[in-house]
Amino acid sequence: MNDKKSAMRSHRVVWHPCTQMKHHEEFPPVLITRGEGVWLYDADGQRYLDTISSWWVNLFGHCNPRINAAIIDQLGRLEHTMLAGLTHEPVVELSERLSTITPGSLSHCFYASDGASANEIALKMSFHYWQQSGFPEKTQFINLQNGYHGETLGALSVTDVPIFRQVYAPLLRPAHPVLTPDWRFAEAGETPEAHALKAAAALESYLTQHHASTAALILEPLVQGAAGMGMYHPVYLQKAREICDTYRIHLITDEIAVGFGRTGTLFACEQAAITPDIMCLAKGLSGGYLPLSVVLTNDTIYRAFYSDQTSQAFLHSHSHSGNALACRAALATLDIIEQDNVIETNRHKTKFLNQCLQSVRTHPNVRHFRNCGMIWAFEVDNPRPDFTNRFAQMGLERQLLIRPMGNSVYIMPPYIINEEEMEFMAQAILNILNEI
Ligand SMILES: *Cc1c(COP(=O)(O)O)cnc(C)c1O
Predict the structure, then answer these.
(1) Mind listing the pLDDT tens digit for each residue in 236-256?
(2) Is the CB of residue 330 less than 8 Å from the CB of residue 324?
(3) What positions are modified (N6-(pyridoxal phosphate)lysine) (predicted)?
(4) What is the full DSSP assignment across 302-343?
(5) How large is the average pLDDT for residues 323-342?
(6) CA of 53 to the centre of ligand 1 (A)
(7) Is 318 labelled as part of a ligand binding site?
(8) What residues flank ligand 1, with Cβ below 6 Å?
(9) What phi and psi values does residue 48 have, to the nearest 5 degrees?
(10) Residue 319 and residue 114 in contact, taking contact as beta carbons nearer than 8 Å
(11) What DSSP state is assigned to residue 79?
(12) Three-state secondary structure call for residue 44
């Protein structure tokens, strides 16, 4: 199939996500026919290094032989069954393993398909817990400024990214965003840690007033992805945990983008040695292969729903909850993380890529260069109004799939990237910076 022709066909019938479709008149979508490792191949045989892990989901490359084999094996046994009244081996094993590897005692796993649905579940669960525990006035949620939790209406209510939120504001619940600990917003001379402590103080001052009406604080631990990979000091998480305990508020950590080793530890919460009351995982959970998300919670919350009354149960469902194929992909992903000692291996890769990016870091147009585990980001001083699209286009011309958010350029490659590919990626980014 001819590349241009099918791109036109796509334009006619596929309404692409997060896209002004008119832009595709000039730059049609790239028709990808095959993936292997960090590379995506188009119909003309051109290849592109997936520097952003296909929207942050891919961990071990495209068409990973081990994950492929697990899915194929599962396909011959059971593709899917509903999870009410029935259960299956992959979902049981995955739940056991997730409760073992996550911090603290998050021992109950509730499944959905997408990240946004996981956050919807977390919010409903927190609210419902308080309803059934003698605190019916706890109906509000707090979030961080610039936080992102997905785009369904409940998740969007706790999302603070104007471009996604503004139009829909009349449909959303009242928002209570508190100061972000993102160190890009620190004052001159203020360290990231001092800024994080200031943000924690702002959280506490909000809660001294509003704790009685607040059910939960939801946040992205360590890295605020959609804010342009804003990063913050882990002391904020420690303080937030203490403050939530003091004021009897649930702490919901949305590790949808940062879970499974992205920030350098298996889960971002580990860097602050805290356990949330509710934790949401998706994206890398299935190695990025299939839509799968999970909400983990502790026994205290679980017990509040456990009774003889059906009406006290958590009556929430999605058709594909705990899909067997997706669970097998997740189990294969966990196997790779363990067998290949991924956290340790990634530490060396992080060091190597930081060396490769030295000239990017010190580039005269680059500000706020930052790195956390396998995520890198920086702001580019460039007045072009079309900077974002232009940078992405120049990336494609240099074999990179890269999509800045505004003037924030970030890279978040699959963990299987090798040294040669890291050198190639860093050099291509430097060339774009010099030419744009
Ligand atoms: C991507 C993302 C979501 C939404 O997940 P979807 O699967 O796209 O619905 C929620 N929270 C965070 C932090 C994310 O990065």
Answers:
(1) 999 999 999 999 999 999 999
(2) no
(3) 283
(4) HHTT-SS-GGGS-----TTTT-HHHHHHHHHHHHHHHHTTHH
(5) 98
(6) 14
(7) yes
(8) 114-116, 119, 148-150, 220, 225, 254, 256-257, 282
(9) -135, 130
(10) no
(11) S
(12) coil
Token code pair at residue 116: 């946004």
Task: State in Å: Cα 118 to ligand 1 middle.
Answer: 9
Model confidence at 340, pLDDT cuts 50, 70, 90, reads very high
Distance 150 CA to ligand 1 centre (A): 5
Query: pTM for this one?
Result: 0.98
Residue 355 CA to ligand 1 centre (angstroms): 30
pLDDT band for position 9 (cuts 50, 70, 90): confident
Write down the mean pLDDT value for the chain.
97
Dist CA 301 CA 277 (whole Å): 8
The verdict on whether residue 254 carries a ligand-binding annotation is yes
| Helical spans, DSSP H, in 102-211 | 115-131, 153-157, 162-165, 192-210
Q: What is the pLDDT of residue 1?
A: 45
Ligand 1: atom nearest CA of 291 is: 7
Q: Which residues pair with 35 in a beta bridge?
A: 40
Q: Does the annotation flag 148 for ligand binding?
A: yes
Query: Residue 131, SS3?
Result: helix
Ligand 1: atom nearest CA of 257 is 15
List of domains in the chain: 31-63+342-434 (3.90.1150.10), 68-340 (3.40.640.10)
Q: What's the confidence (pLDDT) of residue 287?
A: 98
- Considering the chain, what percentage of its residues have pLDDT values greater than 90? 96
Beta bridge partners of 177: 143
Residue 95 marked in a binding site: no
115 is in an annotated binding site: yes
Give yes or no for residue 5 having a pLDDT over 80: no
What's residue 27's pLDDT? Answer: 85
Distances (CA, A) of 303 to 67, 81, 308, 339: 35, 26, 12, 35
